[in-house]
Amino acid sequence: MPRFPVSLVLPLAPVRLAPLLLAAAAGLGALAPAAGHARQSDPIPPAAPPISDGVALAAVPEELRLQTGLHLVLDRSRRQLMVLEDGELRRRFPAAVGMVGWETPAGRFQVMEKQVDPIWEHPESGKRVGSGPANPLGSRWIGFHRDCTGRKGWDGERYLDVQGCVVAGFHGTPHRWTVGRAISHGCVRLYDEHVRDLFDLVQVGTPVTVLP
């Protein structure tokens, strides 16, 4: 299980890519594509339109609404993260999800790790960004998915060939304009005040379902 937070998709093995960001904690480091910056070669994807609680809940399969306990459900198409408790909608947050070719993984997962004030480190300069408004990861990290088959593809600015394991999760962002758009490399960005609320609601083992 990874012991450190990442922004977007996190390669755990060394790769020769630039520019990249380095997320590090607990004495470990890993490379991740740049977080929160517009790509110059692609138009900015549109934000998802606002919807009501009823419309959001209607997208949740009945079998999930019948489950007991706390359950996170991410609707990728509407870019909405829902917190269900015993089938009732407890909270709902707008979210940024993965762009075309780097979609947030769909399926059933669970919260693997939680971290307060994740550290961001630039791989070339070694500059570290701790807690504060400039941290690309915001103030909270909640990991829920790990894949060791690697990922590769064009992200609108460069071709990435990520070797080894990658992880995805929920995190904050200082780039508030990205929330509601399909613009990440797989992670789920939330407004920082929302990821703080979510962090307090979930625990390691909380089920997470990402709808296709």
Question: What are the SSEs and their pairings?
Answer:
Layout: E1 20-25, E2 28-33, H1 53-58, H2 62-65, E3 70-75, E4 80-85, E5 88-94, E6 97-98, E7 107-110, E8 113-116, E9 120-121, E10 128-129, E11 140-147, E12 151-154, E13 159-162, E14 166-171, E15 182-184, E16 188-189, H3 192-201, E17 207-211
Parallel strand pairs: 3-17, 6-15, 14-16
Antiparallel strand pairs: 1-2, 1-9, 3-4, 4-5, 7-17, 8-11, 9-10, 11-14, 12-13
| H-E order | EEHHEEEEEEEEEEEEEEHE
| SS element count, helices | 3
For the record, give the distance between the C-alpha atoms at the N and C termini, rounded to a whole number: 25 Å
CATH T-level topology: L,D-transpeptidase catalytic domain-like
Runs with pLDDT <50, length 5+?
A: 1-41
CATH homologous group name = L,D-transpeptidase catalytic domain-like
Number of domains: 1
Radius of gyration: 16 Å
Which class of secondary structure composition applies to the elements? mainly beta
How confident is the prediction overall: mean pLDDT? 78
> Reading side by side through the largest sheet, how are the strands ordered?
5-4-3-17-7
Largest sheet: 5 strands, mixed
Helical fraction: under 10%
CATH-derived architecture? Beta Barrel
